[in-house]
Recover the amino acids of this structure.
């Protein structure tokens, strides 16, 4: 049980990185994207090629994976500027599938036996999960504080203005195209970073792992926790990963089918959309000086509004 719990924490950290990137695109700028699995794939393959084929270190592959994914995110962001809502969602879905199919056709077998990540001579092994947990969650915290500062900045406020009303934002002098492309580029870079960590942990790259359902799962994490809320996004990653590995955690994997986890978190999302459509923690309101604690926010979020408030 301890082994599976550690596994949940590791994958929750990897997917929390992806969800932070998705939150930058969907939560901050309001663009519904379903191609994050493609960025995840690019980061994974970049790490595999650099570490195994070129023989370079994991720490060199980390910025390269982020830059490669960011470049693809930039290229995706430019032609999809005029698309909104469902049209943008369908276009990004197709682009994510294109990336996966290219990876499958170029190397259908994938890559195996990728060298382990090292730091000062110490190898991060999947056998010692504690060290890998520390490594992944250090980067999650770094990403959290960087994107939190971004939300406080002028750029973050401009992204939120684009999300709320593009016409009003443009009439106030905000370059909507620039912030949309920038949002896609930043989100893609974090998605590629998550792929780098996934490869460093599994030491394999399989093209069949980057399906459309991965993008849906990451979007579910953002919606479940609260779009635009970084704490909520990380909480959503924990909940989704816990649900996914719950049968193995309780020893019922032989009884409960593998598809049951998707049914369960689909049901959780339906319930959330009925009871709490803005997510568990709702919109991030720390910038407005909300003095309530996290526990109070969760407690107050499920209270029914009074007749006067309604």
């Amino acid at each position: 049980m301890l082994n599976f719990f550690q596994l949940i924490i590791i994958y929750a950290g990897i997917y929390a990185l992806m969800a932070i990137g998705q939150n930058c695109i969907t939560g901050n700028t309001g663009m519904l994207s379903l191609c994050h699995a493609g960025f995840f794939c690019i980061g994974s393959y970049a790490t595999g090629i650099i570490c195994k084929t070129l023989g370079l270190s994991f720490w060199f592959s980390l910025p390269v994976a982020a830059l490669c994914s960011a470049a693809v995110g930039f290229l995706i962001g430019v032609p999809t500027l005029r698309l909104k809502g469902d049209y943008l969602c369908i276009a990004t879905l197709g682009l994510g599938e294109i990336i996966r199919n290219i990876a499958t056709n170029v190397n259908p077998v994938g890559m195996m036996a990728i060298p382990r990540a090292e730091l000062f001579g110490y190898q991060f092994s999947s056998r010692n999960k504690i060290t890998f947990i520390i490594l992944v969650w250090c980067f999650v915290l770094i990403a959290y504080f960087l994107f939190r500062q971004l939300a406080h900045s002028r750029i973050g406020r401009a992204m939120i203005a684009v999300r709320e009303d593009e016409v009003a934002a443009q009439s106030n002098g905000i370059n909507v195209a620039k912030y949309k492309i920038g949002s896609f580029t930043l989100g893609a870079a974090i998605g590629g970073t998550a792929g780098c960590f996934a490869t460093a942990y599994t030491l394999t790259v399989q093209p069949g792992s980057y399906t459309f359902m991965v993008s849906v799962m990451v979007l579910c994490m953002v919606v479940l926790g609260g779009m635009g809320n970084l704490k909520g996004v990380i909480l959503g990653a924990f909940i989704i990963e816990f649900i996914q590995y719950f049968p193995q955690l309780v020893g019922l994997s032989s009884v409960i089918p593998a598809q049951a986890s998707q049914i369960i978190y689909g049901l959780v999302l339906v319930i959330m959309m009925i009871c709490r459509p803005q997510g568990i923690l709702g919109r991030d309101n720390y910038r407005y000086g909300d003095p309530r604690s996290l526990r109070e926010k969760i407690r107050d979020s499920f209270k029914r509004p009074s007749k006067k408030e309604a």
Residues 285-291 have pLDDT under 50 and may be disordered.
